[in-house]
Specification:
The chain has helices spanning 3-20, 69-85; strands at 24-32, 35-43, 46-55, 92-103, 106-112. It is an alpha+beta fold.
């Protein structure tokens, strides 16, 4: 399975987990000139920007470890842009990481709320 297919499977799993948590999906794969946010979700008065990382091996580290400080800054910039573009005044914001591991043992999903 190539990286794009693996990433898409991970994003679909994260969407399903978000719905199971009672989150409303506002946007999938939001893109602007600074990059992409995998999922934009809403829970009551909180807008959640979720980064989904899927791996089939720990050879390069666990999935959530791929969200480096530089990636965190980029996601925060994207979140501010999204909030401004969509007039999201009066909401609180949170950045989550959804780590998905697929290997011979099966598939596991771990949701890191307020990851950074």
């Amino acid at each position: 399975m190539n990286r794009q297919m693996l990433a898409r499977i991970g994003e679909k799993m994260a969407e399903k987990a978000a719905i199971e948590r009672g989150y409303q999906i506002l946007n999938r794969n939001y893109r602007c000139r600074w990059g992409e946010i995998d999922l934009v979700l809403k829970s009551n008065d909180i807008v959640i920007f979720a980064e989904v990382k899927t791996r089939s091996t720990n050879r390069f580290g666990a999935p959530h470890e791929a969200v480096t400080p530089a990636k965190q800054r980029q996601l925060q910039k994207l979140g501010r842009w999204y909030a401004s573009e969509n007039n999201l005044k009066g909401f609180n914001f949170r950045f989550d990481v959804v780590a998905i591991m697929t290997d011979d043992a099966g598939i596991s999903l771990r949701w890191y709320e307020n990851a950074f």
